[in-house]
Amino acid sequence: MLKKLFFAVAALMFSMGFAFADVDVNKGDQAALDGIKGLGPAKSKAIIDERTKNGSFKDWADFESRVKGIGEKTGTKLSEAGLTVNGQAKSGAPAKAAPAKADKAAKAEKADKAEKTEKAPKAEKVEKSADKAKTDTADKADKSAKAAKAEASASAKEGKTK
User: Fold this and answer.
1) How far is CA 121 from the centre of its chain?
2) pLDDT band at residue 111 using 50, 70 and 90 as cut-offs
């Protein structure tokens, strides 16, 4: 049980790494661009339309000038969220915050622990009631077996007396 839980948490953390992967504006499809915080379906479509119409973006300045609604501030925010142009983050933008992932993982782990502590007493009660049901069933089976033996021996005695 504990191993399964450990592997489930590990798989969740592993898959979260893919969810926060960098997306290059020249290579990403609409779904990948939508995954960047700050880009919605309309802006992703505008980026893809501009890219197909006029070719790949050369750098951040080219990207910001060609896509309407993306300027210096928005470009910085998108870079922080994981968007890159030709594999490069925007200069002057802080690196993607790795501690945020660690915080999310820690919060998820805390929630799992809290859930376990809530479920533990319930699980014990369920196990105890299951054990009791098993012993009750076994007792009933023993009683019915004893009754069958007694009945068989009584009928055997009757057969001898006749």
Assistant:
1) 25
2) low
Determine contact, residues 36/78, Cβ cutoff 8 Å: yes
3, amino acid identity? K
CA 158 from centroid of its chain's CA atoms: 71
Can you give the pTM of this predicted structure? Answer: 0.48
Residue with tokens 């925010």: 77
- Picking from 14, 16, 2, 8, the residue whose alpha carbon sits closest to that of residue 116 is 2
Residue 1 confidence class, pLDDT cut points 50, 70, 90: confident
Give the dihedral sign, CA 58/59/61/65: positive
**Structure tokens, 47:** 């980026």
Tell me what percent of the chain is helix, strand and coil, each rounded to the nearest 5: 75, 5, 25
- Other C-beta atoms lying within 10 Å of the C-beta of residue 35: 17
Distance from C-alpha of 142 to C-alpha of 111, rounded to nearest angstrom:
46
Could you give the residue ranges of the DSSP H alpha helices within 2-97?
2-19, 30-34, 41-54, 60-66, 72-81
Contact 51, 26 (CB under 8 A): yes
Residue 85 contacts residue 63 (beta carbons within 8 Å): yes
Collapsing DSSP to helix, strand or coil, 10 comes out as helix
Encoded tokens for 117 = 């502590």
